[in-house]
């Protein structure tokens, strides 16, 4: 028989699925895959039910229902001062995952170079490669994950088509500073390149830090595609509603890719997300305050058990160093071990690297209620005898 596609046949099942299956099998508390343990805001779910009954359920427009495209444009104007063309500059997708794929398939020509930053989200590399892109990787180093500017500058060449930038960043909770973003912007201008900006955690930033979209920097409006996700902003990860905001000219080929990948997504969910995006500013503030409290709670517990916790300015995740916990093995062994033996699951940070990863760093999701976080910490404490 002829082989199937090389990129996808060589790929393993994503770590998030593997870890969650193992957690279910062992009835472990799931601090692995990043999803909240609540059911999302009641009013947004009620709107989705209402719209399912009262509004059309046939194909919505390929770019998304007008209400949602307008709401995304208004949201980006309110939070970031962006002037978005809601008709031609907003595309609704099946989650950020499809947004990323449509952007990468829409922009990359075989042979184009694409810069990515490790640690990185696992969907980036296979899609870039399937699109024919040549990956140029740079790496951030723990514990501070600062952007290595010289290394980044060296990664750019005349063939660079784009950079994929994830801020706030999964898994390490880094939020890129204005200084770092300005440096990236300068290189994009110098090399006439684009940025696919994965900003799904845009509202999950802590300690009064600010998320700055790269697209807001001078000269960047025609070079950046800004990706958001209702999954994260409204704690509804299963809905898979994402969006891309970009200059209409740049968005056009992304839209052409989207029309042949999914074409559209469920209309009632789109309308309910439009309702959500119009919530008062207070909603977004409370979302991050609540998560910040959970971050602090879990950090304190894990610290007292013997983990060293790395800085975390945003996202659902903290990174814990398990070097001194008394476990002889790497992060993959460790996560498997605690899922099966302590009843708590987590994600090995090495899953976010292609080669020679750090081996003692573990990602724990804290987007759970405090009681569950306390139970998880209690299980780990008992297991490690602390
Ligand atoms: N990018 C990053 C950095 C993520 O962590 C995730 C997962 N939540 C996604 C993209 C995919 O988001 P979605 O569930 O909306 O497809
Ligand atoms: N983004 C989520 C995480 O990092 C997982 C999404 C998925 O399972 N595909 O945990």
Characteristics:
2 domains; Aspartate Aminotransferase, domain 1; 13 strands; binds glutamine; single chain; Aspartate Aminotransferase, domain 2; alpha/beta; 7-stranded mixed β-sheet; globular; 386 residues; binds 4'-deoxy-4'-aminopyridoxal-5'-phosphate; 14 helices; 4-stranded antiparallel β-sheet
Present the secondary structure layout.
Elements: H1 6-10, H2 15-25, E1 29-30, H3 42-54, H4 66-80, E2 90-94, H5 95-107, E3 113-118, H6 124-130, E4 134-139, H7 149-155, E5 160-166, H8 178-190, E6 194-198, E7 224-229, H9 230-233, E8 241-245, H10 248-261, H11 267-277, H12 281-305, E9 308-309, E10 317-321, H13 331-342, E11 344-345, E12 347-348, E13 361-365, H14 370-383
Parallel strand pairs: 1-11, 3-4, 3-5, 5-6, 6-7
Antiparallel strand pairs: 2-8, 7-8, 9-10, 10-13, 12-13
The chain binds 4'-deoxy-4'-aminopyridoxal-5'-phosphate and glutamine.
Glutamine binds at residues 14, 16, 33-34, 170.
Notes on the protein architecture:
This protein has 386 residues and is of the alpha/beta class. It folds into 2 domains: 6-40 and 282-384, Aspartate Aminotransferase, domain 1, CATH 3.90.1150; 42-279, 3-Layer(aba) Sandwich (Aspartate Aminotransferase, domain 2). Helices cover 42% and strands 15% of the residues. The chain has 14 helices and 13 strands. The protein has a 7-stranded mixed beta sheet with strand order 2-8-7-6-5-3-4, sandwiched between helices. Strands 9-10-13-12 form a 4-stranded antiparallel beta sheet. The protein has a two-stranded parallel ribbon with strand order 1-11. A hairpin with a 7-residue loop joins strand 9 (308-309) and strand 10 (317-321). Helix 4 packs parallel to helix 11 (267-277), helix 5 (95-107) runs parallel beside helix 6 (124-130) and helix 5 packs across helix 10 (248-261). It starts with 5 loop residues before the first helix and ends with a helix. The chain binds 4'-deoxy-4'-aminopyridoxal-5'-phosphate and glutamine (GLN). The site of glutamine has 5 residues, from loops.
């Amino acid at each position: 028989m002829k082989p199937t596609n090389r990129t996808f046949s060589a790929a393993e099942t994503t770590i998030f699925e593997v870890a969650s299956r193992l957690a279910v099998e062992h009835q472990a508390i799931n601090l692995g895959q990043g999803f909240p343990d609540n059911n999302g805001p009641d009013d947004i779910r009620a709107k989705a039910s209402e719209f399912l009954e009262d509004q059309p359920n046939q194909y919505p427009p390929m770019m998304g229902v007008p209400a949602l495209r307008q709401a995304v444009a208004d949201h980006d104007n309110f939070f970031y001062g962006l002037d978005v063309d809601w008709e031609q500059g907003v595309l609704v997708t099946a989650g950020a995952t499809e947004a990323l794929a449509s952007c990468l398939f829409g922009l990359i020509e075989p042979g184009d170079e694409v810069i990515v930053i490790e640690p990185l989200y696992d969907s980036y590399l296979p899609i870039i490669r399937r699109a024919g892109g040549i990956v140029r990787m740079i790496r951030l180093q723990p514990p501070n994950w600062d952007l290595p500017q010289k290394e980044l500058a060296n990664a750019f060449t005349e063939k660079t088509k784009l950079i994929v930038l994830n801020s706030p960043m999964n898994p390490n909770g880094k939020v890129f500073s204005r200084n770092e973003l300005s440096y990236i912007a300068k290189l994009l201008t110098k090399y006439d390149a684009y940025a696919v900006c994965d900003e799904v955690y845009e509202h999950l930033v802590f300690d009064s830090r600010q998320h700055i979209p790269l697209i807001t920097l001078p000269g960047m409006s025609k070079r950046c595609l800004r990706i958001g996700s209702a999954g994260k902003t409204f704690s509804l990860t299963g809905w898979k509603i994402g969006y891309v905001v970009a200059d209409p000219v740049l968005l056009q080929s992304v839209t052409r890719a989207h029309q042949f990948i999914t074409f559209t997504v469920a209309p009632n969910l789109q309308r309910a997300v439009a309702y959500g995006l119009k919530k008062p500013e207070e909603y977004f503030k409370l979302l991050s305050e609540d998560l910040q409290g959970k971050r602090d709670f879990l950090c304190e517990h894990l610290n007292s058990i013997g983990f060293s916790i790395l800085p975390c300015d945003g996202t659902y995740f903290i990174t814990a160093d398990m070097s001194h916990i008394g476990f002889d093995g790497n992060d993959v062994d460790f996560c498997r071990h605690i899922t099966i033996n302590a009843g708590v699951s987590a994600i090995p940070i090495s899953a976010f690297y292609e080669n020679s990863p750090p081996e003692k760093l573990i990602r724990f999701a804290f987007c759970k209620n405090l009681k569950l976080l306390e139970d998880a910490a209690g299980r780990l404490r008992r297991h490690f005898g602390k």
